[in-house]
Amino acid sequence: MIEFGPWKFAVEVHPEGWSFPATATWVAGWISAPQERTVSDLRGWIDGRPALAIWGIPKPGLDEQFINRPGPPYTGFTLLVTPHRGASLFRLEVLDQSGRWTEIFRQSITTSSDAPVAPEPRRLAEDLPALAMELLRLKQRRQGVSWHELADQTISSLLAEPLDSLPNPPFHGALEEPRREGWIRYGRLSITGWLAHRTAKIRHVTAMVDPLLENTLLYGLKRSDVNDIFGDLPGREKSAFVGHVDLPADTQTPCLLKIFAELEDGTKHLVFAQRFTPKVIAGEAPPLPTFSRTTFARAAWALKGAARRHGLVDESWLALSRPLRRAWAAFATEAPTAAAAVPRSLTADAPLLDAAPLRVAIVTHNLNFEGAPWFIFELARHFAAQPGVTVTVLSPQAGPMQRTYAEIGLDVRMVDATAIFKATTTSEAETAFDSLARDLPWTEHDLVIANTMVSFWAVLAAQRARKPALLYVHESSPVHRFFAPILNPSVHPFVEQAFQAAAKVVFTAKSTWAVHNALEHRGNFALLPSWIDVGRIDRFAAAHDTVALRLKHGLDPEAILLVNIGSVCERKGQHVFIQAADLLREELRFTYPDRKIQFVMVGARPGLYLQSLEEEIERRGLNGTALFLPETGDIFDFYHLADIFVCTSFEESFPRVLLESAAFHRPIVSSNVNGIAEMLAPNEAWLVPPGDRYQLAKAIKEGLAALFADDDDRIQRARAKIESRYHESRSLPRHLNLARYAARRA
């Protein structure tokens, strides 16, 4: 064993006498991080040539020695290097969660006389656009680190040779996603492939990017094409795996994915290792600095200097001009601009218009029990209750809220908008818009209100029918990223056209407006507050007993319930809620030995995500602690029966669940994303970074401590704020007034 400061490690496999042959050679061993630190990556250097290791491999017996339990984290590593002729030095560097590389080992080496010559130097121009964006994002995350140091990290990451691994017999399989690029949705990497063993049964398949968190993949799904390749392979018919793995916020690129197979005898085997570059398709991408010529110039100078220090071809600025222009264009497109003036609605200072007749067509993107459909339902209900206002509701998807609309006397007309989402060319989309403009009952209405970006088609169809439209935007994700999974790229410009065609694009959160502010057209953006029906909530709370509500839904009347309300999907982050439950299990059992504490998730819908969460609960032994309940229209029941409300979303605009839980006088623990910071302050709720299971667990502990101490300071502050700022009697009339202005100015 070798000790370098607090690091402990051993290089157990290397060529005798550190004399390398002419062929690729394995270097392997183990490494243990000091307390409060973890290995985030590992690489070896042969003189100035870096090579990435496969690290975090189980080492039974040794893992337990250092952390007093089986991993993760795992201590093993392996590295494959081919020293060039004349190489004289091997170095080993480790990256920890601080984001800095530390050299922990160096060794003089010799190489064979017939070893390959050193490769030709690389050219910066080939990779400059991607490197510039990577460096700019890195600088935004680590502003206290110099451009010089960050540029060196960026260039060395480019040069580092990745080491990937495929299954070795008796394992057979293929990793289909990710390859060199990995799709990231709300902090999670999508994974697909297949795996089988020639002689043994595979019990579990798990995956890791985060060194401290091992995620279970769904394994044993049907697979029909393996038979064409391995007709005699046992288990081939049910060899598919699929799932997601958590990605730490500051993961070094290229990231390392490891997939393990656990056999019935309990042994765990590394079956896949894949280096990949993350591509965010949903959720928040690593931020860029504010758009600035000076910032871009500093990045360019830093990269050129780092390229020279690392032995790349020293190219002139003239030779780099074309890739620099591409990098500049990408930065200009994606970087946030300097803060613009926050939009003011037409009704901010204008008097309320008289109650002239108004015919409104409200388009909801679906009829599920979700936040945005509830938002537009309440707007429709308010409009329909006003003298002279008639409301028609249109939806392209059926759902349980049809009955909710029927209960207030509003029918829902179904609309077929599938041609828009199936269009693969501009002409196909144009034809679909023309058809909708021709076939839908626009002439019966004075105004169209489209709810969510997904309803953009209603704005463009209304434009063709010469009808004004309002577009309510709740999505805090740029157009191209949001629609990448559901809309052909050729149709994306039509979404941006809808922003310009709308009489007003309405936001309820400044943070959501900021995401889309570049699309504003002639002052057509409006910022209006959301609302909450405080009186209705108070009447409900007075009329319902919490014990009776718990019995109604099959919940323990005596338990302490932490309730998470929202459709079970990646964006809502229920997996982080489960991870926090796992982190807290032993501590809560010790701290509150006489109290049963349960983590309840309301909004379960069938799908792979729910199935993967159920398997995760099973694997972690959380049955009876973490519970799912289906989507329901009786949502007030769950605010009232909860002891603490928990929101784990990765992306929200201005979530109604927080307004409602505050109105129900419930303590709130929430991820601090998008409009949530505008809604609640740290002295009104426990706010944590999205996806951070440790901070979430800490906040839940503090919420429980306050609950048991009868400390309701945050509860009272939150209730007072939402009542003063978002009472429906103040907010809803402004939304109606904006609709009247838009209709009259058509």
- Class per helix and strand makeup: alpha/beta
Mean pLDDT: 91
* Unreliable sequence segments: none
What characterizes the major β-sheet? 9 strands, mixed
Shape: globular
What's the number of helices? 23
Proportion of helical residues: 25-40%
Second-tier CATH architecture of the largest domain: Sandwich
Q: What is the CATH domain class of the largest domain?
A: Mainly Beta
User: Strand content of the residues, in percent?
Assistant: 25-35%
**How many strands?**
33
* Number of domain modules: 4
CATH topology-level name of the largest domain: Immunoglobulin-like
C-alpha Rg (nearest Å): 29 Å
Tell me the distance between the termini: 79 Å
In short:
It is built from 23 helices and 33 strands. It is α/β, with parallel strands linked by helices. The chain folds into four domains: 1-119, Immunoglobulin-like (Sandwich); 124-338, Immunoglobulin-like; 358-531 and 731-744, Rossmann fold (3-Layer(aba) Sandwich), CATH 3.40.50; 534-726, Glycogen Phosphorylase B (Rossmann fold), CATH 3.40.50.
Description:
The protein is 34% helix and 25% strand. It has 746 residues and is an alpha/beta fold. It has 4 domains: 1-119, Immunoglobulin-like; 124-338, Immunoglobulin-like (Sandwich), CATH 2.60.40.650; 358-531 and 731-744, Rossmann fold, CATH 3.40.50; 534-726, Glycogen Phosphorylase B (Rossmann fold). The strands form 6 sheets. Strands 12, 13, 14, 15, 16, 17, 18, 19 and 20 form a 9-stranded mixed sheet that branches. The mean pLDDT is 91.
What are the salient characteristics of this protein?
23 helices; 746 residues; Immunoglobulin-like; 4 domains; 7-stranded parallel beta sheet; alpha/beta; 34% helix; 25% strand; globular; 9-stranded mixed beta sheet; Rossmann fold
